[in-house]
Amino acid sequence: MDYTPAGYNDFDAHLKTLQDQGLLYRIDRAIDKDAEMHPLVRWQYRGGIAEAQRKAFLFTQVTDAAGRTYPGAQVAIGALAGNRRIYALGMNRPEDAIGQAWLDAIAHPIDPRQVQQAPCQEVVITGDALRAGQGLDALPIPVSTPGYDTAPYFTAALWVSRDPETGIQNLGLYRGNLKAADRVAVMMERSTLAGGAVHWDKYKKLGQPMPVAAVLGAPPIVAFTGPQKLPLDCDEITVAGGLAGCPINIVKCKTQDLWVPAEAQVIVEGFIATDALEPEGPFGESHGYMALEEYNFSMTVTAITRRTSYTIASIISQVTPCESSVIKKVAYEPLYLAHLRDHLNIKGVTRVSMHEPLTNLRRFLFLSIARGTPKTEIWRALEGAASFTPAIGKFCVAIDEDIDPEDTDHVLWALAYRCNPAVDTHVIPHRGKGHGPAFKGCEIDSTMLIDATAKADYPPVALPKQEFMERARAIWEELQLPRLTPQSPWCGYSLGDWSEEWDACADRAAKGDWLTNGRRSAANRSRTAQPQDQARAIRLGDQD
Hints:
Layout: H1 11-20, E1 24-32, H2 37-46, E2 56-63, E3 73-77, H3 84-91, H4 98-107, E4 113-115, E5 123-126, E6 153-154, E7 158-162, E8 169-173, E9 175-180, E10 183-187, H5 195-206, E11 210-216, H6 220-223, H7 236-244, E12 249-252, E13 259-261, E14 266-272, E15 278-280, E16 283-284, E17 290-291, E18 294-306, E19 310-314, H8 323-343, E20 349-354, E21 364-369, H9 375-387, E22 395-400, H10 408-418, H11 421-424, E23 425-432, E24 444-451, H12 466-478, H13 500-510, H14 514-523
Parallel strand pairs: 1-2, 3-19, 4-12, 21-22, 22-24
Antiparallel strand pairs: 2-3, 5-18, 6-9, 7-8, 7-11, 9-10, 10-18, 11-14, 12-13, 14-18, 15-18, 16-17, 20-21, 23-24
């Protein structure tokens, strides 16, 4: 072999890293890929297990509903983004460096290195062999939503296509509905300007089928580029090189004029018809509902190439949180922050967070805004976030930095007390419906912008100060009470409307000297004040 992997792990090496780090469940008993596999992993997301405690699953004894086995094949689920740490290991970076890594890679792409031989082509299957038990039906592709899905699906496949005008390739993460041993239907979402769908339109105008290749089990640093939002004229493999800090090895397909990652596990080559569409679905979608059967692209397989022993990568999607939402969240958020801060020059934006559970990232954007940011800049940030991409930002909410955007209760708290709907909201019509269930008459949606930042100083958060909470926690642990998982806010803090005098009174109360505070208030009795008029920090003076 003439390839020399360097600077990045292939999928096998990544799985070994996860095992060494205690982030992999290795399941060595027989598991039915059609009825048991995805439901088993799904419990990790619907069983109350915190994200940090989630792990990848590797199934070494795969069977199907008919009892068929798949010698030499394994299936991995959750191995790309079961949690942020797993994703970070795939990126070969600390978690807090992921955002900057994406920005640097996009700014400094590295062209790939072409090789003549590659692990992904150790076994080559073409022609009649595809229809004689060695085609798609010989791959252990799982059913994602048993009871609703109508077939096994590629869920982690990177689909390679090439712009017929520019020659630039695109890598997109799209689902693939197995139809026959040599046929698969693929959904390239046209409403979000998926690169593959844009290419398909161009091939259709030329009256030609579109060459494609589905990459299964790509090196993680390559796989992560598929769901990333990059310009249509950007070859994702060059951004993967930027992430790795070195060229990614690529090899030419056996039956199509396309280049694919040399260290992939499996490559499915073929062409997509441009003169006909095929019913695809139903399939459990990441917006949390079943995507019903609809017409989508139909691919005829011309070759399957793979390693002798290989691992199929599958992603947990459907209801969020899930693996596919983690992959998007850690990549999209830094791009949005860079867009607002660097491209639009709105320096008051300090963080962008996408709401994940059930809503699937695209619908709610929370913008953390620095104290003192002018109102005009807050609204410019909201408008900039809503218009960055067509599929993201149906609800854009500006919040203060003390509000935790990862805690929906926190955000609702801000909406309840820092937002006046009459003046702090704005609805923009004529938005595309984006990624969600299709309903007749609902083709056009709208956008809501909400300013839920504090418009003035607020009193402190009504919890004991940090020093008292920390003192109490030490006692809690001394008493060996149940393990604590602090929820924000867990201590009080000032929001501006407070005084040193009130601090002094509170300090006396905490020391048991509340009688002095009583003498202070008696000395400042008023015959003109109305009930609930604020005393506004009347100073005590020498009352002792």
